[in-house]
Amino acid sequence: MLEKNPKKAFTAREICDILEIDEEREVYELLKQISKILKKKKRIIEFTQPVCRKCGFVMKKMNVSRCPKCKSQWIEPPRFRIKEI
């Protein structure tokens, strides 16, 4: 899915829906494992950091529910795509 659409970036929720996985937490674990396999194929998983849509704060953690700066729950989720090295 990620390899077939190298220009499109997917959120963890979109990956859950496509792969029929219940929890986003499982997607993050899978992405860690997949990144090791992709490294051998000279590819990496590129991602964007989560960003608060209200104040623009860039999060360091992937799975956050609220902004530490303004406490907003309006968070742009991280997006993932595969990129050749």
How would you describe this structure to a colleague?
The protein is α+β, with helices and mostly antiparallel strands and 85 residues long. It has one domain (10-84). It contains 2 helices and 5 strands, in the order βααββββ. It has helices at 12-19, 24-40; strands spanning 10-11, 43-47, 51-52, 75-76, 79-84. The strands form 2 sheets. It has a 3-stranded antiparallel β-sheet. α1 crosses α2. The protein is globular and about 40 Å long. The model has no long low-confidence stretch (mean pLDDT 90).
Task: Please give the structural blueprint.
Layout: E1 10-11, H1 12-19, H2 24-40, E2 43-47, E3 51-52, E4 75-76, E5 79-84
Antiparallel strand pairs: 1-5, 2-5, 3-4
Helix pairs in contact: 1-2
